Hints:
Radius of gyration: 14 Å
Number of helices: 4
Strand order of the largest sheet: 1-2-4-3-5
Amino acid sequence: MSERAIDVPGRNKAHNGVAKVFAWNPEGELLGTVIFVHGLFDDAESAWNGTLGKHTENKFYKRPHGKPLKQQFEESGVKALFLVPEAELNKVSFAEVVWRSLPDLLSTAGAKGPWWRSAIAGATPPSTSGWSTRTWCTSA
């Protein structure tokens, strides 16, 4: 198994976000790539670590002892490269979208294979931050 945080210096990042892409993959041949876009009140690192609701005061969204994404990915048994990039925080303005190109994200993370062997997943309904990042799926 391989876990890593890929630094992306010089790339725009969301206010209070992290300039990293978190990645994990099991051993063996991979079938593709799964990209997880975090929720509105998290950054990539808090989603990765399971410390949910870091960017809100609303107790409903605070789950500081959530299950880390790496553990969830591992337990899924899916043979894929899992990526957690940064996305907008606390608003849906489209101004803080970090990754506007799916091929750029995949290349930066060292994903193998064509971009169409990728799946986009998110923690949020389409009305929140994940939506503004997932829109690049249609323009790849």
